[in-house]
Amino acid sequence: MIYHFLILSDENDDFVREILIDSEATFYDLHEAIMDSVNFDKSQLASFFVSDEEWEKGQEITLMPMDDSTDEALIMEDVRLNEIVGKKKDRLYYQFDFLNDRGFFIELLQLDETKQLAKAKIARAAGDPPSQEDFDDFDLDEMDDFVDDDDIKKFSDDDDDFNFDDDDDVIGGGRYSDDDDDGRYY
């Protein structure tokens, strides 16, 4: 069966992608098709979220296992599309920017039960995608709320508090001797 997905962005009204993909394909295959359609860097993290009619995020399907993930975590390459999506108007949210909570809204437009597809195809590509990373909201001047010049000066003036000798190599709180062949600390 072929799934016909519509992909939209709330950042650019002209942006539209439509992807045809086999229902037996994995979420990783859909991820790759989306990345190819927008020319994004594939080395960046991304996740799918099962969504309701209001686009509220539900179950997450991650690109790779996370250290703090629970047993309920699903991995893209392990989950087939038809295990999660199967009805017209089913929705997913594809998050590609975790820092700014940005992503694409995906809806299953049509199902064609008479055909199969070996590889995903971009059926429609209109408009420019948003940038993959959005640094417009990042303001270095706001960093003053976290670190002020007095703190920086205090730390730089307090180097003598650590009793470092200029001739010593200090690693992990111990002294390292260049004369010692075994590289031990003492």
Structural notes for this entry:
This protein is of the alpha+beta class. The chain folds into two domains: 2-126, Structural Genomics Hypothetical 15.5 Kd Protein In mrcA-pckA Intergenic Region, Chain A; 140-176, no CATH class. The protein has helices at 27-38, 81-84, 149-157, and strands spanning 2-8, 16-22, 47-51, 57-62, 74-75, 91-97, 102-112, 121-126, 169-171, 174-176. The strands form two sheets. It has an eight-stranded mixed sheet with strand order 5-4-3-6-7-1-2-8, covered by helices on one side.
Would you spell out the secondary-structure blueprint of this structure?
Layout: E1 2-8, E2 16-22, H1 27-38, E3 47-51, E4 57-62, E5 74-75, H2 81-84, E6 91-97, E7 102-112, E8 121-126, H3 149-157, E9 169-171, E10 174-176
| Secondary-structure-derived class | alpha+beta
CATH architecture of the largest domain: Roll
User: Helix segment count?
Assistant: 3
CATH topology of the largest domain: Structural Genomics Hypothetical 15.5 Kd Protein In mrcA-pckA Intergenic Region, Chain A
Percentage of residues assigned to helices: 10-25%
> How are the strands of the biggest sheet laid out side by side?
5-4-3-6-7-1-2-8
Helix-strand pattern: EEHEEEHEEEHEE
Q: Would you tell me the overall average pLDDT?
A: 80
Radius of gyration over C-alpha positions, nearest whole angstrom: 25 Å
What ranges have pLDDT less than 50 throughout 5 or more consecutive residues?
168-172
CATH class category of the largest domain: Alpha Beta
Structural domain count: 2
Strand content: 25-35%
In angstroms, what separates the terminal alpha carbons?
68 Å
Number of strands: 10
Principal-axis shape equals globular
CATH superfamily of the largest domain: MM3350-like
